[in-house]
């Protein structure tokens, strides 16, 4: 049967897992003959959504509303709302918005291409994840990616930690590791397609493998991925302070392809709050891990996540957080003010902090951390790093961006022909978010003989 070519666009919100899902979906649709086009021209727009904070949901709701006006006048695009917020809001989305024709939770991504084709034939589809373990996955590697040189690979779905503020375990379901063979096969396919750097994704990568029959841990996976011929760099995120283990540090120390960068969310500097968050460690436990990391990997960069204004956070707790930031000296911290998520334990806790106060605390931590990040970056001026040039810089003509092994973004003067190249960069300047540099030389791999058996 001849099928008509439909056109689509994908809008991605939320975390890197969504970027991975979005790229896989794009690949799958294009393989079925769909054509990617501008979002205002498309027959269908897929919105990959996030529920982590209220703001993330509001942004998507207003986008859905905007498409609604187009839909009314032009009869398109129809919308497929997928991912965490789709799971969270479910049938409500269909009821509220006539332009929404597909709603699918994160564990139904494998059925989204069919659902879209049904929607084009005027069928509305609702797939919510009822069994938190079942996973109807897409079996396409993200071959048609937003970036040709780097790719994400999800190594485990879901999360079992139930931090009291967090919606992820409710919308993404239980922690289920993907099989090592499947992950390695996908990484090889990506490398054959030109990928030089992969980032392994999971809500808690350190518990990778705990649910597998064989004894195969995250450190084993890291080592095996690093051995994939042709791959230059392996990154991973996110680590959990309760589950981070010595064997991961050893793997990083032994294998230079595993980048010396760790995102280890601390969330609060007060033990009392950490307990109420159900995080399972104290500030002291946390401090021991980063001490050990810095001993074993002197150049390591450590980033963290932090929430201010958790219910019951007193001025004293907040001061502990400020002290903690000064002691830990993180390279970068993703900060957020606490957003109550319906259905999570923290949303019902007493002593919710007023918005104004949360805002005040957020701006204080940001100011403090910006100064620390700036100081840490400033020290790097004059130093040399190996940088993989992977994209155009967000602003500034004739500028490219890349990352150091320690995951710092470096902006350098350069042109398109240099994209995808590994080069030696001298750092010439620093801000709290970026390093600035100049290319000293290019790394040449043409003399590297690769033997594939
Ligand atoms: N699994 C990872 C990342 C989870 S989501 C981890 O354990 O850290 C990314 C970040 O969003 C979290 O680290 C947390 O800092 C933030 N976050 C999660 N729920 C939140 C909420 N209700 N309000 C504000 N920030 C939140
Ligand atoms: Fe959320 Fe905690 Fe799981 Fe991270 S570890 S996704 S913060 S429940
Ligand atoms: Fe958001 Fe879901 Fe990721 S809630 S942060 S898209 S796991």
From TrEMBL:
[4Fe-4S] cluster 1 binds at residues 15, 50, 84. Pfam families: Radical_SAM, TRAM, UPF0004. One of its GO terms (molecular function) is tRNA-2-methylthio-N(6)-dimethylallyladenosine(37) synthase activity. Residues 378-441 form the TRAM domain. PROSITE patterns: MTTASE_N, MTTASE_RADICAL, RADICAL_SAM, TRAM. It catalyses: N(6)-dimethylallyladenosine(37) in tRNA + (sulfur carrier)-SH + AH2 + 2 S-adenosyl-L-methionine = 2-methylsulfanyl-N(6)-dimethylallyladenosine(37) in tRNA + (sulfur carrier)-H + 5'-deoxyadenosine + L-methionine + A + S-adenosyl-L-homocysteine + 2 H(+). It is found in: Cytoplasm. Residues 6-121 form the MTTase N-terminal domain. Its cofactor is [4Fe-4S] cluster. Keywords: 4Fe-4S, Cytoplasm, Iron, Iron-sulfur, Metal-binding, S-adenosyl-L-methionine, Transferase, tRNA processing. SMART domains: Elp3. InterPro entries: Elp3/MiaA/NifB-like_rSAM, Methylthiotransferase, Methylthiotransferase_CS, Methylthiotransferase_N, Methylthiotransferase_N_sf, MiaB_methiolase, rSAM, rSAM_horseshoe. Its EC number is 2.8.4.3. NCBIfam families: miaB-methiolase, MiaB/RimO family radical SAM methylthiotransferase. Monomer. This is tRNA-2-methylthio-N(6)-dimethylallyladenosine synthase. It comes from Acetomicrobium hydrogeniformans ATCC BAA-1850.
